[in-house]
Structures are given as C-alpha cells and as structure tokens.
Amino acid sequence: MGIRDEIKAGLSPVVDLVYPPRCLSCGVPVAKHGGLCIDCWSELEAGPEEADGVLSATLYNDASRQLILNFKHGGKVSLAGLLGQMMAQRLPDALGPGAPILVPVPLHRLRLWERGFNQAALLARELAKRGKGELSVDALIRQKRTPSLGGLGREARKEALQEAIAVPASRRALVRGRDVIVVDDVYTSGATSAACVEALIAAQAQSVRVVCFACVAQDRV
Ligand SMILES: [Zn+2]
After folding, report:
1. Alpha carbon of 62 to ligand 1 centroid (Å)
2. 117 close to 77: Cβ distance less than 8 angstroms
3. Distance 75 CA to ligand 1 centre (A)
4. How far is residue 70's CA from residue 160's CA, in Å, rounded to a whole number?
5. What is the pLDDT of residues 96-116, one digit of tens each?
6. How far is the C-alpha of 132 from the C-alpha of 122, rounded, in Å?
7. What is the whole-number distance in angstroms between the Cα of residue 24 and the centre of ligand 1?
8. Cβ atoms within 10 A of the Cβ of 151, count?
9. Residue spans of beta strands (DSSP E) within 98-206
10. Fewest CB atoms within 10 Å of the CB: 48, 54, 122, 142?
11. CATH number of the structural domain 3-220
12. At what angle do helices 191-202 and 154-164 cross, to 10 degrees?
C-alpha cells in the first residue's frame, strides 16, 4: 500500500514521541517506552471466551477505557502497538492464500479528517504485522455520516447503521468466499459490528468474526 493510500485510510498519524518513558495509561515514569506501569497492567481484566464470533483482548473497565481514551483522543497513537499485541494473542497465526482479511470498522471521512486517523485501521494494521491476516482498510466503507446513536432506540440505531456501512463494489471480489475478521477498538452493544457483519455476508464472505481490544460485559449493557 502506497503512502497516499495510507493517508487516505487514516493510517499515517503524526508520530508521537514520548520522552522520558512513561506509562501509556496513567503517565507515571516507567523503565521502557511503549508499556504500562504495574498498577495499570494489574487492573486490566482478560476478555471473555469467544462468544457469537466476538473475540476481545480485555473486558471493558476503567483501565481499558483509559487506554482507549488515550489512544483515540489523547494523542497516544503509539498505543496501537500495545493494544494490537494484546488483540493478536487472541487470534491464530494465519499466513498464505487462505488467510483471513482484516477489515477495520470504517469511520466516515469527515470524522477521519477531524480525528486524523481511524483507530480501528491502526489496530488492524498491527494484527496484519503480527501475521494474523491480510489487511484491507477499505473493504468496508461508511457511506454517510451516522448521526450520534446515543439518543436512538435499538431498531432505529440498527437501521441507521445498516444504511451507512457497506462493502464497496471495488472490494466485492476480494471479500467473496473469504474469512473476514472485523477489527474495532471497543465492542459495546454490537450494533456497529452487526452492521459490518451483515454487509460482509451480503458480499458473500465465507465467515465473519469480530476482534476488539475491549468488550463491555453483556450483562452490563
Ligand atoms: Zn500506569
């Protein structure tokens, strides 16, 4: 993928240099760049067993929420490596022609401009680097800006997302007959992932799983 495509896909954020080394979550000094302090590590909880095709590195709690906030809104893009590493541990190695396609949950391009990067695309790239599949950053697109889903009921939310997320015509041949892994940072109600899965199945993907860094325990939704 050329640098222009990477920029288009939101994969080339400004590199953030952290010096001296600090915990990427709470900021206390630590020995090495790119890690967490012992306290923050110990507050992370392992994700649940795979359920309905959803794999999660951690359970969504204060510690994982703080990491995601720092990653998405705190300018700590270097967290992609750490979060991606933890997600990669949940997936088997998959190289060669039968490898799954890694597809980030898409951001609308206006939101991409605002934020400067798609956090899900950065995580998908980390998984590809670690031999978990073939990266395809644009196999799903968001055709229109989804209104804030907070105030919508379950059905309205589903409908808004289904209209918004699709496999573009140029990527249908790539998706057909393949195993696909949808990548996201957080799995909450599952509405966004469900819209992604539906679009991929409509494009004749052979199977679709979802991998995320943190998932909200379903009894807490
Ligand atoms: Zn810490």
Report:
1. 12
2. yes
3. 16
4. 28
5. 788 999 999 998 877 788 888
6. 14
7. 7
8. 8
9. 101-104, 134-135, 141-142, 165-166, 179-187
10. 48
11. 3.40.50
12. 40
